[in-house]
Amino acid sequence: MTEKIDEAGTKILSLISHKFRTPLSIINGYSDALMNQKSTEKMSAFGEKAVEEIHKQGNHLAYLVERLIKFTKVEEMETKDIVKTPLHLRALITAAALEILENVEGEVEKRGDVLVKGPVTLEISCSGDFSFMGDENLAAAAVGELISNAVKFNLSANKNVNIYCQRHNNNVSLSIKDNGAGIRPNEINKIFDKFYQIDEYFTGQIEGWGLGLPFVKKIMELHGGMVSVVSDKGLGSVFTLTLAAS
Ligand SMILES: Nc1ncnc2c1ncn2[C@@H]1O[C@H](COP(=O)(O)OP(=O)(O)OP(=O)(O)O)[C@@H](O)[C@H]1O
Ligand SMILES: [Mg+2]
User: What structural domains does the chain harbor?
Assistant: First the structure.
C-alpha cells in the first residue's frame, strides 16, 4: 500500500516538474537577455535589482526542477533498466570529486592523492583493484551526492573529506568521511527518507530537496548494493557504499 502511494507520489512529482520546465526556461531566457542588456540599456536602480533577483531565483528554481526530474527518473527505474559495465572506484571517485570542486571557489591544486580547492581538502586513498559492475552515470551520481553533502554540511574552516576504498570478501566499498556537523543518532534513519532535512541551525544548510540520500539509496538498490552511515553530533560522518566486486 505505502509503495503504491509512493509510486503515485513519484509520478505526480515527475509530472509537475516536467510541466514547470518549459515556462521556467522561457522566464530564464528573458531574464538572461535582460541581464545582458543591463549595462547598455538605461534601467532604473530598482529595475536592475529586480532583474538580478529574478535571474538568480529563476536559475535556482531551474536547478531544483532539474534535480527533481533526475530524481523521479531514477525512482521509476528497475534493475533491468540499468546498463552495467566494469567500473573502477578510483576513476569514479576522482571524476565525481572534480565535478563537486567546480562549485568551490579557488584553483584546484593536486598533491598526489590530495585535491585542494579553497577551504576543501579531499584525500582519495583508493589504489589497488577496486572494481565492480555498474551503471557509470548512476554510480558517479551517487558518489557525487555523498561528496557534495560532505562539503555542504560542514561548517569547519578546513573542510576535510577522506575517501577510501576497501575490499571485504566478495565486496568492494567506498567510504566518504567528513569533519562536518555530524548527525544525531535519532536522525540517522530519517535522512534516507524523501524530503527529510535536518534543521539549518544544526547543519548550516537547508537548500536542496532532501532527495540526495534517497537517490543514493535507490541507486544502490538498483545495483544490489547498500549505503550505510556512521555519525554523531559534532563528530563528522562516514557514508559507505558497498557493492559486489567484479
Ligand atoms: N555528510 C553529512 N553531514 C551532516 N549532515 C548530513 C550529511 N549528509 C546529509 N546530511 C543531513 O541529511 C539531510 C538529507 O541529505 P540529502 O542529501 O538527502 O538532502 P540535502 O543535501 O539536504 O538536499 P539535496 O541532496 O536534495 O540537495 C541533509 O539535509 C542533512 O541535514
Ligand atoms: Mg544532498
Answer: 2-76 (1.10.287), 80-244 (3.30.565.10)
Report how far residue 149's alpha carbon sits from residue 159's, in angstroms, rounded to the nearest whole number: 11
Distance 93 CA to ligand 1 centre (A): 19
209 within ligand 1 shell (Cβ under 6 A): yes
pLDDT in tens, 142-153: 999 999 999 999
Examine the pLDDT at 24 and tell me if it is beyond 70: yes
Please tell me if the CB atom of residue 198 comes closer than 6 angstroms to any atom of ligand 1.
yes
Reported pTM: 0.93
Determine the residue of 66, 69, 74, 153 to mutate for testing ligand 1's pocket, defined as the one with the most ligand atoms within 8 A of the Cβ atom.
Answer: 153
pLDDT at residue 54 greater than cutoff 90? yes
**pLDDT for residue 16:** 93
